[in-house]
Each structure stands twice: as structure tokens, then as C-alpha cells.
Amino acid sequence: MMEKHRGFSRFWNRCTGEVLFVLALLALGLAIRLYDVDDPPLDFHPTRQLHSLILARGIYLPEAPNVPAWQKERARLQAQAEGIVEPPILEMLVVQTYRLLGREVPFVGRLYSLSFWVLGALGGYLLMRHWLSVPVAGVGLGLMLFFPYGVIASRSFQPDPLMTALILWSLWALAGWRQTDSWRWALASGVLSGLTLLVKATGGFLLFFPLAVLLWAERKRFSRRTWMQLLGVGVLASLPLLTYSLYGWFVAGYLQQQMSLRFFPQYWLDPVFYLRWASLLTQTFGLPWLAFALLGTMVLPVPLRAVAWGGWLGYLALGLALSHHISTHDYYSLPLVPFLALGVAGLMQVFLEHLPEPRRWWRAGAALVLLGTAGWMLYESRTILKKADYRAEPAFWQMLAGQMGDDARVIGLLPDYGARLTYWGWITPANWWTQAEVDLRRRAGQNVDVQALLQEQTRDKDFFVITLMDEFQRQQELQQFLAQYPLFRQGDGYLIVDLRTKRGN
Asked: 463 in helix, strand or coil?
């Protein structure tokens, strides 16, 4: 009886220790993301974040009390002008929070994103615990929570952090299904996978390939029950996205307008594309971490190895499908962070298994190195967040709008396609392309006549606003065109050209 009680006590202490260990890591991961949380969301792909802010405001303000009628109408029109690809799930959560708070709080979206990421990291830990020990899975969890790029990107008000979190929980459920062959796990994996694809369809690449490789690795275990369960998983996973796509494409029609400039198969034969992609990857993650992750993936336990290799293959397929975006938008690589963590955890497992005697001392040394690495990552993340201060931005764009008037008709060479002027200045500008955007359209086979476009797009406009001064210097044709109009205002970092009259008139 005494032995049984001691065994239970050891088990209880072990479980309690693991829970406290995981909670401590999750708390640290949450704390670093809450640092400077109220700074305007311009630190990471501001165009994408401002899109969600404009959309959320356009849903919230028309029904909000004590708001001027013109702002309600302007917010509604600005939201309508935003293109929609993914269903605005995160934006609707933010809108409901605005309603509970009784006002618009721009960093609410950031709070949701970072919370989803931390919860997703817990799903990743549970996935690893199917096959790895607590210390090894803890290393993977720490990387998901403390890796500096992951810290910054997971605070972004966009669907990618939520999608990545759901990928991890879906893989956890898929692993549980393959271990037990139970319908309960199969249904859970189908529902979670369906939510993932609904949040953002690109998550399908990071789910389909891990599942395909895992099923291939376990093909000898297949039975009729397995095939039936797989069919159920497939139906549950695809039904939400299929329903949304059919509605958006054939009923509402807005998805038809969002598919251009996305697919560039001609890039596949261009070596420069692969160099650009590799360069972005190394800038985002660092070559050593990528190398460690790939090496560690080779030595993971077989089922987890299949999941991890499937993730890398899915990422490769995603890159080929969206070749322009994968080589220019680093957040398309954000779902790679968990697979980076899996690989590093695999490397750590081999390291711990081959420690020389006395192992206790070597383990203590390894723990110190890992603690130091985690501390440095947290410090680096805080430094990046501390250096970025955008609190002056709202006042700048409000000032700019105030000089032209609320009803001014504006075109501009502006950051983020004019979204800052839209969100903080309440003016919806037409956007003049950068030289890179002109080149992109020409690569896509479009005939771009700059002078004809300028004549067309400035017609019936009052002002041409320029805040991208370096870009303006690169565009000689734009400079020549605007030289025929008088300068309306000039200040630190901006020019406003009056399009209502020509010089000499």
C-alpha cells in the first residue's frame, strides 16, 4: 500500500512540475508580446494590419452611438472599398469587443492575435509530447514562444497567427487520431482542420502534406475503418471553405476580383526567384536555425518526423503556388516557425541521449545554455519593440488631412496604399503605384502606359499627396507630369500638389 502511495506521489509531482513548467513558459511568451501593446500597428506589415482595422471600424461605427453621421458613412464606404479574401473572422471578434468596450480600441486585434499564438504554442507542445519528453518538448515550446520573429509577427492584426495556431491544434488532433484510430479524434481533427482552412486557405498546404506523409508512413496499418475516418476528416475539413468560396465567388462575387496578381508560374524557371526566396528566409529566420531545424527533423521519432517533413513539403508547395508572395511577404513563412521548433527539438533529443558521464553536470550545463538563449531572445524581442515607436503617426496623417479638408478628392504616392490617410485622416485616396508595382504588372503581362494612367487617375482629383519622397525621386515621368501643377503645401516628409489648376492659369 505504501509503495502504491509513493508511486502516485511521484506521478503527481511529475505532472504538477510539467504543468508549472509549461505555464511559466506560456506566461513569459504572453508577457513579451504585451510589451508596448498600444503602439499603432505599423511595426509589422502595416498594410495588412490597417486593412483589418479599416474593415473592423467600418462594421462597428455605423451602429455605434454618439458618432457623427459623416464618420459613420465614411467608415462604411471605406470598409466596402477594402478587398476581402478570407472571411473577416478576427475582425468580427474585434468588432464585438469594441461594442463591449463602447469604443474603438485599435490594439484589441493585436491582443487577440498574440493570445491565439500562445494558445497555439500549447497545441504544438502537446503534439510533441505524443513522442518527446518534457524537456525536449519544452525546448520546442520555448522556440515557438521566444523566437524574435515569431514574437513580432504573432502580434499582427491579421489571420496568420490564428491560422498557425489552428494548424498546430489540427496536427495535434491528427496525431491523436493516428495513434488511437478513434472516431472522436478523427472528428476533432476534421473540425479543427476545417476552421484552419476557413481562417486562411493557405493553411491547407501545412495540413494536407503532413497528413499525407504521416498516412504514407503508416500505410501498413490501414483498414476499412481508417478509410472511412479519412473520408470524414476530408469532408469536415473542406466543407467550411468550400461553402465560403462558393458564396464569395458565385453569389456575392467579391472573390472574383481578388485572384489577379497571385499566381506567377513563370517564376518557377527563374533562378532569381529562388535566390530571392532563400534570401528572405535567411533574413527572417537565420541560416543556422534553418540548418539546425532540417538536421533535427531527420532524427525525430518516425510519426513526428513524417509530420515535420510534411510541413516542410507543404511550405515548399505553398511557395510554388504563391511564388510572388512567398518571396516578398515574410508572413507567408510564419507557419514555418512551429516546424522550425519541431526540428530543433529533435536535435535536442539526440544531444541529450548522447551526453557523456556524469550526465547530471552536462544536463545542468545544457540547461544554462538554453536559459541564456531564451533570455537573449526575449531581450532581442524587447529591443525591437522598444525601438519602434509610431505614436506620432496618427497626428501626422490627421494634420495632412486637415490641410486638404475632409471632402478632398486625393490621389497619392503613399505608404501602405494610402491606408494610413484612410484610417487616421478619414480621406480615401486613390493610390499611385510605386515603380516596383509597375514592374510587377509588366511581368504579369499587363501593358502599363504611365502617362495615360496619370491623365486618367488625376482627372477630377483635387490634390496629389506625396510622402514616399525617395520613391518620388525614382519616378521621372511622375515628376514631369506634376511639374505643370502648383505646389499647395510642403513640409517635413510630404508634398501636396494642387491638381485643380495648372501653372500659368
From this structure: strand
Locate all alpha helices (DSSP H) within 286-409, ordered by sequence: 287-297, 302-321, 323-328, 336-353, 359-387, 393-404
- 329-359, pLDDT tens digit by residue? 999 999 999 999 999 999 999 998 888 888 8
The Cα 145–Cα 377 span in angstroms is: 10
Q: What is the DSSP string of 138-172?
A: HHHHHHHHH-HHHHHHTTSSSSHHHHHHHHHHHHH
Distance separating alpha carbons of residues 363 and 359, to the nearest angstrom: 6
User: What b/e readout covers 207-229, taking b as 16+ CB neighbours within 10 angstroms?
Assistant: bbbbbebbbebeeeeeeeebeeb
Q: Are 344 and 296 in contact (CB under 8 A)?
A: yes
Are 202 and 262 a contacting pair, CB within 8 Å? no
Neighbours of 7 (CB within 10 A): 10
Contact 107, 56 (CB under 8 A): no
Q: What is the mean pLDDT of residues 415-439?
A: 93
Whether the pLDDT of residue 58 is over 60: the answer is: yes
Beta bridge partners of residue 494, listed in sequence order: 491
CA 16 to chain centre: 34
User: 487 is written with which cell numbers?
Assistant: 505646389
Q: Is the dihedral of CA 170, 204, 217, 355 positive or negative?
A: negative
Q: Are 162 and 150 in contact (CB under 8 A)?
A: no
**In the block, residue with C-alpha cell 497555439:** 120
Distance, in Å, from the CA atom of 177 to the CA atom of 371, rounded to the nearest integer, reads 34
Model confidence pLDDT, tens digit, residues 428-438:
999 999 888 88
Within its chain, how far is the Cα of 360 from the centroid?
41
Q: At which residue does the C-alpha cell 527563374 appear?
A: 270
Taking the chain, what is the end-to-end CA distance rounded to the nearest angstrom?
A: 103
Instruction: Tell if the pTM clears 0.85, that is, is over it.
Output: yes
d(Cα 124, Cα 274) in Å, to the nearest integer?
Answer: 29
